[in-house]
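Review this:
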Amino acid sequence: MTKEETALKVCEILKSYYPDINCALQYKEPYELLIAVRLSAQCTDARVNIVTKDLFKRYTTLKSFAEADLNELESIIKPCGFYRMKAKNIKEMAQRLLYEYGGVLPDTMDELLTLSGVGRKTANLILGDVYGKPAIVTDTHFIRITGRLGLTENKEPVKVENDLIPLIPPEESSDFCHRIVQFGRDICRARKPLCDNCPMVGFCPYKLELDIKFH
């Protein structure tokens, strides 16, 4: 199969496995998703959801984050790691959103990238989940799995993003990324992937290489 055919087949299979997929991070307001994504760097989504449950009760508005005492903010988000930098980024993000964007998250990549601590991965997640725009979120699960499936030979997030944009239907791209992440947790794990339980085993180059290697 060509890369295009493989990508469409993967898209179809994942859609049947995870028809009603959502972002694993829990939030109500768009700015809360932005904060949760920042906290998720080098931290599991499960831990972030535990932390944000208290965090969003303590700070109930964007203004409260913009005016937050850094020491207090740091103490709440400490379990997520790198808490000093994350607290600083969160407060600066809130201030910029409040005073320069009227409290509304920008809906373009260029504008989102001007926010403190926001990279392409975060910006794409916001564009896809909040605004329903085509978006490829290249986290570690995504890079690993698309590489194993032969959809990209790159490891750098922006290169992987560029490789996948022409392969995934734009209207499917955001959900496709969420499905890949869940698939990575359930089956295509970093260590000891459950290839025998994988619905893509018949056309996966990674499995073929394993079979050749051990036979």
